[in-house]
């Protein structure tokens, strides 16, 4: 079943990115970091219709730690969900590490000897966070079509950095996705910070999803244990309890995946986490005939409030609604949807083509020609000229 899900997600992600000889889901980029004193590499994915004329071309951004490991999984999942109206189209930035132990651990782990090869360079997480805040996010904002909404996602030590960012730097991101986070690190230091800071921090609009491998029953069974063998599970339970009881973390969920291991939990947790974080995005089940432009205007006003910036109803969605009513012979309703698109996407040639089709159906040739002429000014295409020629006969 898991293999089938992976193939399905990947096929949905890759669809629309293929040329005659290549399948491309992103590209490599790099930025020199003064904070870290080195060149840092990133992988960047933009949605498939990024170059569509008339769009706002601004996308919420998911910053993914361990980018070389989880970039394709994140791309596949966001593409699949966005195409099914379950989350917005999203830009993915995979952040690669030159020294993972340094980058993803906010503190040096004193439990392990400092000269151990395992943790010698640990404790650079705050510096790495500063790089993301002061250099990477501004770079992405100035070089890519990034909206103001940002999410941080990470697994294991990456999950630790995600939670540390939420607790100590909540202003950096709108939402957080932590998968099997290593909360035990450095003598459970994160729990000490969380006990103080998960209160009255003004995080009403922050969303956190924590995906955990193995069953809740297993986690509960180790609560009375005090050995290092169970510190991972006990640390997770303590943070879960703090987050659940905190009035400040109002949009929080933890899910335990009975059949998943530490390494395999990423795929289902990524999917479920995005569904939870964007639970406001899915359209309610309504009869198509009853939907109006006022409904979409109100719904996307609510979505805009959740996202923190103006989100317009997708051009394709509104266009399809217009043609639905056009085919039903409900011309006034069709006109209202086509006009909504013209108001929202005045630089898209297609919105004028649709309105021209409506006037053609109403046998109003002068108006049909007027809108085709507007379209022609934006896109000089033989198809448009042929339609004009036929109408002028």
Descriptive keywords:
393 residues, alpha/beta, Rossmann fold, Serine Threonine Protein Phosphatase 5, Tetratricopeptide repeat, 8 strands, 14% strand, elongated, disordered N terminus
Description of the molecule:
This protein has 393 residues and is of the alpha/beta class. The protein folds into two domains: 2-277, Rossmann fold (3-Layer(aba) Sandwich); 288-392, Tetratricopeptide repeat domain (Serine Threonine Protein Phosphatase 5, Tetratricopeptide repeat, Alpha Horseshoe), CATH 1.25.40. The protein contains 15 helices and eight strands. The protein has helices spanning 2-14, 67-83, 100-104, 125-143, 157-168, 185-197, 216-220, 231-245, 266-277, 293-307, 315-327, 331-344, 349-361, 365-378, 382-392; strands spanning 27-33, 38-45, 59-65, 91-95, 146-155, 175-179, 207-213, 251-257. Strands 1-2-4-3-5-6-7-8 form an eight-stranded mixed sheet, sandwiched between helices. β1 and β2 form a beta hairpin. α5 runs parallel beside α6, α6 (185-197) packs parallel to α8 and α11 (315-327) runs antiparallel to α12. The longest helix has 19 residues, at 125-143. The radius of gyration is 25 Å and the shape is elongated.
Give a short synopsis of this structure:
This protein is an alpha/beta fold and 393 residues long. It has helices spanning 2-14, 67-83, 100-104, 125-143, 157-168, 185-197, 216-220, 231-245, 266-277, 293-307, 315-327, 331-344, 349-361, 365-378, 382-392; strands at 27-33, 38-45, 59-65, 91-95, 146-155, 175-179, 207-213, 251-257.
